[in-house]
Amino acid sequence: MDTICNAIMLPMKILLLALSKKVDGDREHNLVCNFKGAEEDDEELDDDPEYLELEKFSQKHRTLALAWSPETSLNVFPKTVAFCSAASDHKLRLYNSDLTANSTLQELRGHTDYINAVAYDPYGEYVVSTSDDHTCRVWSLKELPGQCITNIQLLSPGMSVACHQSEEGKLLVGEKCGVLSLFNLVSGQAILSFDSNRSPLLSADWSSNTSLYA
């Protein structure tokens, strides 16, 4: 099978990006990026950017992680754009917009060090974050909006978090020391844990097609 690669030229250096998953049965994917300012670049691109900017969101602090909410969709009315960013001030920010004049921003506080990864559960009921403060935190978005309902203590800095559509209620956490663990998403109870024999571990993810993780 041939590999197809589509390139989009952007006007500034990309620091972070997140790709939305398929929503509402459609196959439309949306991209959210965090750019390095043009004044910081060594040189600017001469070509016109081949993309459509839907809306620009700004924050004062450096963005460290991004994740799309599964509730994001451009094929409904009103349109829904929702995502989470983790910033260098140790806070999470939840952005919601209908791409008109209606936008909201909510800050989640609790981490005491840099946040390395964020993820939503498949139904958009929770957002999960993990940090250099050796914790993985689960935040309620529906029943107790904005509250941290679970605080999982880790052996080392948390580097990755991932949820899976077919493994409801489970959370994969990757630690810098190389340990990969599965937890109950709500209770924080450990299900299994093993050493990847790779340290420092920088990233881990779950395959969307199977319940295998990489």
Automatic annotation (TrEMBL):
* SMART domains named among the record's database cross-references: WD40
Gene3D superfamilies, A to Z: YVTN repeat-like/Quinoprotein amine dehydrogenase
Cellular component aspect of the GO annotation: nuclear pore outer ring
Q: Which residues cross the membrane?
A: none
Q: What is this protein called?
A: Uncharacterized protein
Keywords, sorted A to Z? Signal, WD repeat
At the top level, the lineage of the source is Eukaryota
* Species this chain originates from: Timema monikensis
